[in-house]
Amino acid sequence: MTSRPGNGMLNAVLSVTSHLELHEVLRNVVEAAADLTGAPYAAIGVLDAAGEVETHLETGDAPDVRALLTHPHGVEVLEAIGPEPLLLEDLIDHPRFADLPPGHPRTARFLGVQVRVRDHTYGRLYLAGKAEPFTDDDADQVRLLAAAAGIAVQNARLYAAARTRERWLAVGQEITTTLLSGTDIEEALGLIAARVRQVAHADTAVIVLPGLGEDWVIEFADGDPVGDLVGIVMPPTGRAMTVLRDGHGIIVDSFARARNLRVPQFGRYGPSLYAPLMAGENGIGVLILLRRTGAPEFTENELTIAESIARQAALAITLSESRQAQDLAALLSERSRIARDLHDLAIQHLFATGLRLGQAQQRFLEPGGGVEEAVAGDLEAALDGVDSAVGQIRRIVHALRTDAENAPVTERVNREVALARSDLGLAVALSFDEATAAALQAREDLADDVMAVVREGFANAARHARAEHVQVALVADDGQFTITITDDGVGPDPATDRRSGLANLAGRARRHGGRCTLTTVGSGQTGAGGAGRAGGAVLTWTADLP
Q1: Please, what's the b/e burial string for 413-445 (b: 16 or more CB within 10 A of its CB; e: otherwise)?
Q2: Is residue 176 part of a domain?
Q3: Which of 239-243, 448-452, 462-466 is predicted with the least confidence, judged by mean pLDDT?
Q4: Residues 145 and 277 in one domain
């Protein structure tokens, strides 16, 4: 069969360029090439960044030809297709088949061309099995069709990029709205992982956040079974930390081909994308998207959009945290106002009323006052009531003021210990000396952080570790303040614990030049319960003292 005239070529080009969906473009290229040349078999192989076939589409029923082209020698012939069309009277005429024995049966005629997009080899279009030889005219038409295909592929990419950007921007708006609407930070981070994974067509999304000490830990994961991912400590010289330090995202073509894989759990994935959560110049986390082995690689366009969304999410997180701090400050201010009003108004009025009642009582009790003893008793009861009300209001004022940080830190810790004993059922032992109390009194800026550490330690011991005994030691020595909380529970499980609260403590410690660590009580150590109970954890939090 001879090639079609010019109208056939024009129709083929129109059929290729009339679609914007990439799969349809590739399908039309293959069918148009077979139609133009009369070849019973046509196929296109799209290459990934490593030069390996990522997508394969074919038309025609030619099992013998297909088997020959998938043979190692046939694959080498496909790899040999260069800028100029490769036209073979028979596939075995190619040097790659030189090791075939003499007299080997003839196989199939072959024509192959490159499909190039912006001076890069996008894929290979090839045809085989034609009854008559492929002609130079066939080669020219297929080459022109491949050129048109390159343009159509580029248009399809632009269209796909525009649609991708639209979907990502919608997700970014949803994330920002959620964060700024007052949603809990942990809930919002879970939403970020889920929605970004969906819009990126990823199989798994994880978020890396500051952990204990200098560690950065996977705190959130969404997608495929991810139980073994949460709690992984990222290697300090790995990709995540590099992205965090540089402030720029990266694309990994495939973890399955990586030689030095520092996180073994990532070995089950293929393409990946890393985007830093940047709040200004500060990195507060890393978003990692993972696709299954064999899935399409992430594009530069997806990386650019992911970086933008990650920055947007980081800014929203920072603003949300600032708003929560402002809300807390407003709450404390309101409590202080209530305390002042109670003192300045209620107590003063009650005190004045008490004075008037006292004067009346004195007059009533004067000789010859003529007042019944019952009236005197009523006045006495009224005075007692006023005194009781004044006492109650004074206690309320005291409580409000102490909660508003007017009480010494050690007193607040003592109250927290009492609550842990009564509400959580913990047997708590607290120790500190006068020097430590004085050092804390001089560092009012540590008060909230100290209370956060103590509360988090009690919460972990009671709810997660299922401890019975807890020891709390406050020590100020050699320019450093240390809180050590030891329990006799089951100990930390880094493979399953999300540890977001502990990561918050680590951030508080870093603000004061200190560290926060959580360790398991070793075999040679004794837990908080003494020799009768084994196991447990030790939470250590430090801050520099001037």
Answers
A1: beebbeebeeeeebebebebeeebbebbeebee
A2: no
A3: 462-466
A4: no
